[in-house]
Design a protein that fits this description.
This protein is of the alpha+beta class and 405 residues long. The protein contains 13 helices and 13 strands. Helix 2 (30-38) runs antiparallel to helix 3 (42-60) and helix 5 (94-102) packs antiparallel against helix 6 (105-129). The termini are far apart.
Length: 405
Protein backbone atom coordinates (compact mmCIF):
# COMPACT_ATOMS: atom_id res chain seq x y z
CA UNK A 1 0.00 0.00 0.00
CA UNK A 2 1.45 3.36 -1.04
CA UNK A 3 1.12 6.14 1.50
CA UNK A 4 0.42 9.56 0.14
CA UNK A 5 2.59 12.30 1.67
CA UNK A 6 1.45 15.90 1.50
CA UNK A 7 3.97 18.70 1.83
CA UNK A 8 2.77 22.11 2.97
CA UNK A 9 4.80 25.18 2.06
CA UNK A 10 4.28 28.07 4.45
CA UNK A 11 3.19 31.33 2.94
CA UNK A 12 6.35 33.45 2.80
CA UNK A 13 4.28 36.58 3.30
CA UNK A 14 3.70 35.53 6.90
CA UNK A 15 7.42 35.99 7.52
CA UNK A 16 7.79 39.31 9.41
CA UNK A 17 10.82 40.19 7.26
CA UNK A 18 8.88 39.85 4.01
CA UNK A 19 8.07 43.60 3.60
CA UNK A 20 11.78 44.46 4.05
CA UNK A 21 13.29 41.53 2.15
CA UNK A 22 14.24 43.42 -1.04
CA UNK A 23 16.18 45.99 0.97
CA UNK A 24 17.79 43.50 3.33
CA UNK A 25 19.04 41.19 0.57
CA UNK A 26 21.80 43.67 -0.35
CA UNK A 27 22.51 45.04 3.15
CA UNK A 28 23.14 41.76 5.00
CA UNK A 29 25.91 39.20 4.59
CA UNK A 30 24.49 36.08 2.96
CA UNK A 31 24.77 33.90 6.06
CA UNK A 32 22.90 36.39 8.25
CA UNK A 33 20.29 36.97 5.54
CA UNK A 34 19.58 33.25 5.28
CA UNK A 35 19.58 32.67 9.04
CA UNK A 36 17.18 35.54 9.66
CA UNK A 37 14.83 34.45 6.89
CA UNK A 38 14.68 30.87 8.21
CA UNK A 39 14.45 31.90 11.86
CA UNK A 40 12.99 35.41 12.32
CA UNK A 41 13.06 35.08 16.10
CA UNK A 42 13.68 38.06 18.41
CA UNK A 43 17.30 37.01 18.98
CA UNK A 44 17.96 36.71 15.24
CA UNK A 45 16.21 40.00 14.45
CA UNK A 46 18.38 41.63 17.11
CA UNK A 47 21.45 40.41 15.20
CA UNK A 48 20.06 41.94 12.01
CA UNK A 49 19.51 45.27 13.72
CA UNK A 50 22.98 45.27 15.29
CA UNK A 51 24.56 44.55 11.90
CA UNK A 52 22.70 47.46 10.28
CA UNK A 53 23.72 49.78 13.10
CA UNK A 54 27.38 48.77 12.72
CA UNK A 55 27.15 49.17 8.95
CA UNK A 56 25.77 52.67 9.40
CA UNK A 57 28.68 53.64 11.63
CA UNK A 58 31.18 52.30 9.10
CA UNK A 59 29.57 54.05 6.13
CA UNK A 60 29.39 57.41 7.94
CA UNK A 61 33.18 57.60 7.65
CA UNK A 62 32.98 57.31 3.85
CA UNK A 63 30.64 60.21 3.08
CA UNK A 64 30.83 63.99 3.54
CA UNK A 65 29.22 65.44 6.64
CA UNK A 66 26.22 66.95 4.88
CA UNK A 67 25.41 63.63 3.19
CA UNK A 68 25.34 62.01 6.61
CA UNK A 69 23.28 64.80 8.19
CA UNK A 70 20.91 65.38 5.27
CA UNK A 71 20.94 62.28 3.05
CA UNK A 72 19.56 62.80 -0.46
CA UNK A 73 16.98 60.57 -2.01
CA UNK A 74 19.16 58.13 -3.99
CA UNK A 75 18.78 58.69 -7.72
CA UNK A 76 17.55 62.29 -7.48
CA UNK A 77 20.46 64.67 -8.22
CA UNK A 78 20.66 67.78 -6.09
CA UNK A 79 23.04 70.73 -6.08
CA UNK A 80 23.87 73.91 -4.25
CA UNK A 81 26.17 76.87 -4.81
CA UNK A 82 28.70 77.07 -2.00
CA UNK A 83 31.11 79.75 -0.79
CA UNK A 84 34.07 78.20 0.94
CA UNK A 85 37.75 77.40 1.15
CA UNK A 86 39.14 74.16 -0.28
CA UNK A 87 42.27 72.34 0.88
CA UNK A 88 43.90 69.61 -1.21
CA UNK A 89 46.72 67.35 -0.02
CA UNK A 90 48.87 64.79 -1.80
CA UNK A 91 51.68 62.54 -0.63
CA UNK A 92 55.18 62.54 -2.12
CA UNK A 93 57.15 59.34 -1.75
CA UNK A 94 54.16 57.01 -1.73
CA UNK A 95 55.12 55.18 -4.94
CA UNK A 96 58.61 54.09 -3.73
CA UNK A 97 57.03 52.96 -0.44
CA UNK A 98 54.36 50.99 -2.31
CA UNK A 99 56.98 49.32 -4.51
CA UNK A 100 59.12 48.40 -1.50
CA UNK A 101 56.14 46.92 0.36
CA UNK A 102 54.91 45.06 -2.72
CA UNK A 103 58.21 43.20 -2.93
CA UNK A 104 57.64 41.87 0.60
CA UNK A 105 54.28 40.23 -0.11
CA UNK A 106 51.82 39.94 2.77
CA UNK A 107 54.33 41.28 5.31
CA UNK A 108 54.79 44.33 3.13
CA UNK A 109 51.03 44.77 2.84
CA UNK A 110 50.78 44.79 6.63
CA UNK A 111 53.52 47.44 6.85
CA UNK A 112 51.84 49.62 4.23
CA UNK A 113 48.45 49.24 5.93
CA UNK A 114 49.92 50.28 9.27
CA UNK A 115 51.63 53.35 7.77
CA UNK A 116 48.50 54.46 5.91
CA UNK A 117 46.24 53.86 8.90
CA UNK A 118 48.52 55.99 11.07
CA UNK A 119 48.71 58.68 8.42
CA UNK A 120 45.00 58.91 7.66
CA UNK A 121 43.86 58.61 11.27
CA UNK A 122 46.23 61.40 12.30
CA UNK A 123 45.21 63.69 9.46
CA UNK A 124 41.50 63.03 9.90
CA UNK A 125 41.76 63.87 13.59
CA UNK A 126 43.44 67.20 12.77
CA UNK A 127 40.80 67.99 10.14
CA UNK A 128 37.96 67.20 12.52
CA UNK A 129 39.41 69.25 15.37
CA UNK A 130 39.98 72.14 12.96
CA UNK A 131 36.29 72.17 11.86
CA UNK A 132 37.10 70.94 8.38
CA UNK A 133 34.73 68.72 6.42
CA UNK A 134 36.59 65.82 4.80
CA UNK A 135 34.91 65.36 1.43
CA UNK A 136 37.04 62.51 0.15
CA UNK A 137 40.22 60.55 0.42
CA UNK A 138 41.38 58.94 -2.80
CA UNK A 139 44.52 56.88 -2.73
CA UNK A 140 46.91 59.10 -0.81
CA UNK A 141 45.05 62.40 -1.43
CA UNK A 142 42.59 64.33 0.73
CA UNK A 143 40.05 67.05 -0.06
CA UNK A 144 38.72 69.21 2.77
CA UNK A 145 36.31 72.15 2.73
CA UNK A 146 35.72 74.95 5.23
CA UNK A 147 32.31 76.61 4.99
CA UNK A 148 31.50 78.66 8.09
CA UNK A 149 29.91 81.48 6.07
CA UNK A 150 32.79 83.80 7.05
CA UNK A 151 35.47 83.82 4.30
CA UNK A 152 38.24 85.16 6.52
CA UNK A 153 37.56 82.51 9.13
CA UNK A 154 37.45 79.77 6.48
CA UNK A 155 40.86 80.83 5.16
CA UNK A 156 42.38 81.00 8.64
CA UNK A 157 41.02 77.55 9.51
CA UNK A 158 42.34 76.07 6.27
CA UNK A 159 45.84 77.52 6.74
CA UNK A 160 45.97 76.40 10.37
CA UNK A 161 44.85 72.94 9.33
CA UNK A 162 47.47 72.74 6.59
CA UNK A 163 50.26 73.79 8.96
CA UNK A 164 49.14 71.34 11.63
CA UNK A 165 49.04 68.55 9.07
CA UNK A 166 52.55 69.35 7.85
CA UNK A 167 53.86 69.36 11.41
CA UNK A 168 52.23 65.96 11.97
CA UNK A 169 54.28 64.42 9.13
CA UNK A 170 57.42 64.05 11.28
CA UNK A 171 56.75 60.38 12.21
CA UNK A 172 56.69 59.46 8.52
CA UNK A 173 60.19 60.71 7.74
CA UNK A 174 61.91 57.46 8.72
CA UNK A 175 60.06 54.36 7.51
CA UNK A 176 62.13 51.21 7.59
CA UNK A 177 61.81 48.84 4.60
CA UNK A 178 63.97 46.10 3.11
CA UNK A 179 65.09 48.68 0.54
CA UNK A 180 66.31 50.98 3.26
CA UNK A 181 64.80 54.00 4.96
CA UNK A 182 62.03 55.77 3.05
CA UNK A 183 59.98 58.85 3.83
CA UNK A 184 56.58 60.33 3.10
CA UNK A 185 56.09 64.05 2.59
CA UNK A 186 52.98 66.04 1.83
CA UNK A 187 51.98 68.94 -0.39
CA UNK A 188 49.06 71.17 0.61
CA UNK A 189 47.21 73.63 -1.63
CA UNK A 190 44.45 76.10 -0.64
CA UNK A 191 42.01 78.21 -2.65
CA UNK A 192 38.84 80.06 -1.70
CA UNK A 193 35.88 80.84 -3.90
CA UNK A 194 32.45 79.84 -5.14
CA UNK A 195 31.64 76.39 -6.49
CA UNK A 196 28.79 73.92 -6.87
CA UNK A 197 28.39 70.92 -4.58
CA UNK A 198 26.23 68.18 -6.09
CA UNK A 199 25.00 64.68 -5.33
CA UNK A 200 24.58 62.75 -8.56
CA UNK A 201 23.95 59.25 -9.87
CA UNK A 202 21.37 56.47 -9.73
CA UNK A 203 19.56 54.89 -6.76
CA UNK A 204 22.16 52.12 -6.93
CA UNK A 205 25.24 54.37 -7.11
CA UNK A 206 25.52 57.97 -6.00
CA UNK A 207 28.52 60.31 -5.82
CA UNK A 208 29.26 63.66 -4.20
CA UNK A 209 31.09 66.04 -6.54
CA UNK A 210 32.30 69.63 -6.72
CA UNK A 211 32.01 71.66 -9.91
CA UNK A 212 33.63 74.95 -10.88
CA UNK A 213 36.98 76.60 -11.53
CA UNK A 214 37.52 77.16 -7.81
CA UNK A 215 38.05 73.41 -7.44
CA UNK A 216 40.57 73.31 -10.29
CA UNK A 217 42.46 76.28 -8.84
CA UNK A 218 42.69 74.59 -5.45
CA UNK A 219 44.09 71.45 -7.09
CA UNK A 220 46.58 73.54 -9.08
CA UNK A 221 47.77 75.16 -5.84
CA UNK A 222 48.53 71.73 -4.37
CA UNK A 223 50.32 70.62 -7.55
CA UNK A 224 52.41 73.80 -7.65
CA UNK A 225 53.33 73.62 -3.98
CA UNK A 226 56.34 72.15 -2.28
CA UNK A 227 56.63 69.29 0.15
CA UNK A 228 56.42 70.23 3.84
CA UNK A 229 54.77 73.56 2.97
CA UNK A 230 51.30 75.04 2.40
CA UNK A 231 50.66 76.74 -0.96
CA UNK A 232 48.06 79.46 -1.50
CA UNK A 233 46.49 80.98 -4.59
CA UNK A 234 46.63 84.71 -5.26
CA UNK A 235 42.97 84.94 -4.24
CA UNK A 236 43.73 83.59 -0.77
CA UNK A 237 46.81 85.79 -0.40
CA UNK A 238 44.79 88.90 -1.23
CA UNK A 239 42.47 88.24 1.72
CA UNK A 240 45.16 87.38 4.27
CA UNK A 241 46.63 90.71 5.26
CA UNK A 242 49.75 90.41 7.41
CA UNK A 243 48.69 87.42 9.49
CA UNK A 244 51.33 85.07 8.05
CA UNK A 245 54.62 85.42 6.21
CA UNK A 246 54.58 84.35 2.56
CA UNK A 247 57.10 83.39 -0.09
CA UNK A 248 56.25 83.73 -3.81
CA UNK A 249 56.73 80.87 -6.27
CA UNK A 250 57.42 80.86 -9.99
CA UNK A 251 53.83 79.73 -10.69
CA UNK A 252 52.01 82.72 -9.16
CA UNK A 253 51.34 80.90 -5.92
CA UNK A 254 52.45 81.70 -2.40
CA UNK A 255 54.03 79.47 0.24
CA UNK A 256 53.24 79.96 3.92
CA UNK A 257 56.39 80.34 5.98
CA UNK A 258 55.74 78.31 9.11
CA UNK A 259 57.45 80.46 11.71
CA UNK A 260 54.44 80.51 14.03
CA UNK A 261 54.73 79.50 17.64
CA UNK A 262 52.21 77.01 18.97
CA UNK A 263 50.23 79.76 20.67
CA UNK A 264 50.21 81.80 17.45
CA UNK A 265 48.83 78.87 15.52
CA UNK A 266 45.99 78.91 18.02
CA UNK A 267 43.74 76.39 19.63
CA UNK A 268 41.72 73.93 17.66
CA UNK A 269 38.31 75.09 16.54
CA UNK A 270 35.38 73.60 18.37
CA UNK A 271 33.70 71.17 16.03
CA UNK A 272 30.57 69.10 16.26
CA UNK A 273 31.23 65.40 15.77
CA UNK A 274 29.22 63.55 13.19
CA UNK A 275 25.99 62.24 14.61
CA UNK A 276 26.20 58.52 15.10
CA UNK A 277 22.64 57.61 15.92
CA UNK A 278 22.51 54.66 18.27
CA UNK A 279 19.04 53.41 18.95
CA UNK A 280 18.21 52.16 22.40
CA UNK A 281 15.06 50.12 22.29
CA UNK A 282 13.16 48.26 24.93
CA UNK A 283 10.51 46.54 22.84
CA UNK A 284 12.13 43.21 22.06
CA UNK A 285 9.03 41.77 20.47
CA UNK A 286 9.11 40.76 16.81
CA UNK A 287 6.99 43.77 15.81
CA UNK A 288 9.16 46.15 17.83
CA UNK A 289 12.37 44.80 16.31
CA UNK A 290 10.95 44.96 12.79
CA UNK A 291 10.22 48.66 13.37
CA UNK A 292 13.80 49.27 14.50
CA UNK A 293 15.17 47.38 11.50
CA UNK A 294 13.02 49.44 9.14
CA UNK A 295 14.31 52.68 10.70
CA UNK A 296 17.91 51.44 10.43
CA UNK A 297 17.41 50.61 6.75
CA UNK A 298 16.16 54.14 6.08
CA UNK A 299 19.40 55.49 7.59
CA UNK A 300 21.77 53.04 5.90
CA UNK A 301 20.38 52.93 2.34
CA UNK A 302 21.31 56.51 1.32
CA UNK A 303 24.85 56.06 2.69
CA UNK A 304 25.27 52.67 1.02
CA UNK A 305 24.42 54.13 -2.37
CA UNK A 306 27.69 56.12 -2.31
CA UNK A 307 29.77 52.93 -2.39
CA UNK A 308 30.62 50.84 -5.47
CA UNK A 309 28.60 47.62 -5.30
CA UNK A 310 31.57 45.28 -4.95
CA UNK A 311 33.19 47.48 -2.28
CA UNK A 312 29.88 47.75 -0.43
CA UNK A 313 29.58 43.96 -0.40
CA UNK A 314 33.08 43.67 1.07
CA UNK A 315 32.20 46.20 3.77
CA UNK A 316 28.95 44.36 4.55
CA UNK A 317 30.75 41.03 4.85
CA UNK A 318 33.44 42.46 7.16
CA UNK A 319 31.35 44.96 9.13
CA UNK A 320 31.48 42.96 12.34
CA UNK A 321 35.31 42.83 12.24
CA UNK A 322 35.63 46.48 11.16
CA UNK A 323 38.74 45.42 9.25
CA UNK A 324 39.55 44.28 5.71
CA UNK A 325 42.56 42.00 5.34
CA UNK A 326 45.42 43.73 3.49
CA UNK A 327 46.59 42.56 0.06
CA UNK A 328 48.73 43.89 -2.78
CA UNK A 329 47.02 42.75 -5.99
CA UNK A 330 48.20 43.68 -9.46
CA UNK A 331 45.65 46.12 -10.82
CA UNK A 332 44.90 48.12 -13.95
CA UNK A 333 43.95 51.76 -13.41
CA UNK A 334 42.15 54.13 -15.76
CA UNK A 335 41.15 57.79 -15.49
CA UNK A 336 38.30 59.42 -17.37
CA UNK A 337 38.75 63.19 -17.45
CA UNK A 338 35.68 65.34 -18.10
CA UNK A 339 37.41 68.50 -19.24
CA UNK A 340 35.27 71.60 -19.57
CA UNK A 341 31.99 70.24 -18.20
CA UNK A 342 32.68 70.81 -14.46
CA UNK A 343 33.98 74.34 -15.08
CA UNK A 344 31.06 75.31 -17.32
CA UNK A 345 28.87 76.08 -14.29
CA UNK A 346 30.81 79.33 -13.76
CA UNK A 347 29.76 80.73 -17.14
CA UNK A 348 26.26 79.28 -17.23
CA UNK A 349 23.09 81.20 -16.56
CA UNK A 350 21.41 80.31 -13.25
CA UNK A 351 18.71 78.31 -14.99
CA UNK A 352 21.37 76.25 -16.84
CA UNK A 353 23.11 74.95 -13.72
CA UNK A 354 20.58 72.17 -13.17
CA UNK A 355 21.07 70.94 -16.75
CA UNK A 356 24.87 70.84 -16.29
CA UNK A 357 24.55 68.89 -13.04
CA UNK A 358 22.12 66.50 -14.72
CA UNK A 359 24.52 66.02 -17.66
CA UNK A 360 27.35 65.24 -15.25
CA UNK A 361 25.07 62.82 -13.40
CA UNK A 362 24.16 61.00 -16.62
CA UNK A 363 27.81 60.70 -17.69
CA UNK A 364 28.81 59.36 -14.28
CA UNK A 365 25.93 56.86 -14.21
CA UNK A 366 26.53 55.48 -17.71
CA UNK A 367 30.28 55.16 -17.23
CA UNK A 368 29.79 53.46 -13.87
CA UNK A 369 27.36 51.00 -15.48
CA UNK A 370 29.88 50.03 -18.16
CA UNK A 371 32.72 49.72 -15.64
CA UNK A 372 30.73 47.46 -13.32
CA UNK A 373 29.60 45.32 -16.27
CA UNK A 374 33.28 44.70 -17.05
CA UNK A 375 34.07 43.82 -13.45
CA UNK A 376 35.75 47.12 -12.57
CA UNK A 377 35.22 49.68 -9.84
CA UNK A 378 34.57 53.37 -10.45
CA UNK A 379 35.90 54.41 -7.10
CA UNK A 380 34.85 58.06 -7.20
CA UNK A 381 35.09 61.39 -8.95
CA UNK A 382 38.42 63.01 -8.16
CA UNK A 383 39.99 66.28 -9.27
CA UNK A 384 42.75 67.20 -11.66
CA UNK A 385 44.42 70.47 -12.55
CA UNK A 386 42.53 70.43 -15.87
CA UNK A 387 39.15 69.07 -14.82
CA UNK A 388 37.30 66.34 -12.94
CA UNK A 389 38.43 62.73 -13.17
CA UNK A 390 36.74 59.42 -12.60
CA UNK A 391 39.12 56.94 -10.98
CA UNK A 392 38.55 53.40 -12.27
CA UNK A 393 40.42 50.22 -11.41
CA UNK A 394 40.24 46.54 -12.28
CA UNK A 395 41.51 43.51 -10.38
CA UNK A 396 41.41 44.92 -6.84
CA UNK A 397 38.88 42.62 -5.20
CA UNK A 398 38.97 39.65 -7.59
CA UNK A 399 42.40 39.63 -9.21
CA UNK A 400 42.72 37.50 -12.34
CA UNK A 401 46.16 37.49 -13.98
CA UNK A 402 44.62 36.34 -17.30
CA UNK A 403 42.11 39.20 -17.42
CA UNK A 404 43.16 41.66 -20.16
CA UNK A 405 40.76 44.28 -18.72
Amino acid sequence: MNAQVTYTVADTQTNPLFPLERQLRWLLPTNLYAAAWVDPSPSMLTRVFEHLRTLQHVLIDYVPRHVCDQPPEPGNPRYNWQEGTLLFTDLAGFTPLLEACSAEGLNGAEVLLRVLNNYFSGMIEIISKSSGDLLEFTGDALLVQFTTGEPQRDIAQAINTGLRMQRAMTPFQHIQTHRGELSLNMRVGIHTGRYVTADIGTPQRMAHVLLGRAVTLAKQAEGSGRIQQVALTETVKAQLGDRVSLQPTATDHWLVIDNLRVEELGEYEITVARRRSTSIFFDRSVSGLIGEIETAIQRVEPLASYMPRSVLQLIIDTASERRISPALPTVAVAFVNLMGLPESVDDARPEETAAIVDCFSQAFSLINGIVELKGGILQKVTYHSIGSEMLIHFGVLNPDPSDPH
